[in-house]
Amino acid sequence: MLASARLVNAAVSSRLNKVVATAALNANAVITAHVSKAKQKRVVIEGAVCLQSITTPQYFFKVIKMYRKILLIISSLGLIAVSGCMSVPNNLNLSLGRTTDQNIYLVEAHSLVTPIDINKMHAWEIKVRTPSGDPVSNAHIDVSGGMPQHGHGFPTQPKVTKELGDGRYLLEGMKFSMSGWWEIKLAVTSKLGTDRVTFNKVIEQPGSVAIARLQ
Ligand SMILES: [Cu+2]
User: Fold this and answer.
1) CA of 204 to the centre of ligand 1 (A)
2) What is the pLDDT, as a whole number, of residue 206?
3) Looking at residue 182, which CATH number applies to its domain?
């Protein structure tokens, strides 16, 4: 039996300690329990049980009870034939400065906090300019996004709350509830028109093997 599988089982068993393992298994396999806050009633089993970001511990344990049998069978056979939660595509454009789809705006975005911790609310700054570099003021920016591979959105409702001058805008309420590939979609509207841009952001796993203590 793989040590990592034991780790998961141990974590599943140790309800008293309310210890949950975020177990990165071997190079290829990750078992995670993926409980999406956006879709709390839905557990995504992506070729494995995804156990990564636990936003609702009670619900998590319910889920774990259900899938414990499966976990035990899998691990006792030593057949953790999982490719893990989907890996991040390696051709993603990770640039946080792009022109919008119809080239109306040049938009830059950056987090005001680095590194970005999982599940921690933080703010970003968005800078909007014309392609020739003039700052765009009085713009309205709608924000959406989520994890395209998991089919869920942000756990929060990020919003642009303030215009900071010089074409800069404050985006508050950003929170990434798990590691992996996130899309940040902005729709910018000003007197120049409405145009959209999608940024890709990869949130790294804090450690290859981590034990998270709940509460
Ligand atoms: Cu996700």
Assistant:
1) 12
2) 78
3) 2.60.40.10
